[in-house]
Design goal:
Layout: H1 16-27, H2 36-45, H3 47-66, H4 74-85, H5 98-104, H6 108-116, E1 129-134, E2 142-148, E3 153-160, E4 167-174, E5 180-185, E6 193-197, E7 210-217, E8 228-234, E9 236-237
Helix pairs in contact: 1-3, 2-3
């Protein structure tokens, strides 16, 4: 029996579709750590697999070049002014994290592809809104989210970072008034997609809103507010490039 990291080598040889998916995840840095040694060992002995990795690398590079330039966020300007001229008036806790989030999630289209299929395919459903949340400091954390207007589904997938024992990650949506509203727990298992119907009263918050992920005791926030915010990301309209 082969080990967990070499599941593509069965009696009939590697599965091309599975190899393509793994190669895409490898290029994006999303292949599980436990599978990396076996995959890289195959790269050393399989030129065909190397060609698949090179193809995905070129494909993603071309997509990145096609992304429109993004102007610096207003929050970044305020941080610079604060450093130069003193601390400004107090702002909501989540806004202080947004400049870091914007730098960490410049390519939301990649996150949506990973969220829905693990790789870019024509069959991937087209979202209305997307958001990627990555922790700037502390333990690694990477969460993708998206909203499908057609089915009124909100999707959450965690691709990076371990969940501490006796704890859970919780997703929050924040509208213009700065009040965080829980959207439920982030899946504990990486790569698992949580789907839920978005309540009608929360749909207006998607436009110009913000998502945050907090670390909570097992089962979620004990008082209905975030306990320890780990990552924040702006909700963006999805634009196919």
């Amino acid at each position: 029996m082969s080990d967990q990291g070499d599941t593509t080598d069965g009696p009939t040889g590697p599965d091309p579709e599975e190899d393509a998916a793994r190669a895409a995840e490898y290029v994006l840095g999303l292949l599980p750590e436990g599978e990396l040694p076996a995959f890289e060992a195959r790269l050393a002995r399989e030129p065909e697999l190397v060609e698949v990795v090179v193809s995905w690398t070129e494909h993603f590079a071309a997509m990145a070049e096609a992304l429109p330039p993004v102007a610096p966020a207003p929050q970044l300007k305020r941080r610079i002014e604060a450093l130069a001229f003193g601390t400004p008036a107090a702002r909501p806790w989540w806004r202080s994290l947004l400049p870091y989030a914007l730098g960490a999630v410049a390519a939301a289209v990649f996150g949506w592809a990973v969220l829905t299929t693990g790789m870019l395919t024509p069959e991937a459903p087209e979202p209305t809104y997307v958001a990627d949340l990555a922790a700037e400091a502390g333990p690694e954390l990477l969460v993708h989210a998206g909203y499908l207007a057609e089915s009124n589904e909100f999707l959450i997938r965690r691709d990076g970072g371990a969940v501490p024992e006796g704890a859970d990650h919780e997703m929050w949506i924040i509208g213009g008034d700065g009040t965080p509203i829980s959207l439920g727990l982030v899946p504990r298992e990486p790569g698992v997609i949580a789907r839920q119907v978005l309540p009608e009263e929360l749909r207006p918050l998607l436009e110009g809103g913000t998502l945050a992920v907090s670390l909570e005791p097992a089962g979620g926030s004990p008082d209905g507010t975030p306990t320890e915010v780990r990552a924040v990301g702006p909700i963006r309209p999805y634009t196919e490039t």
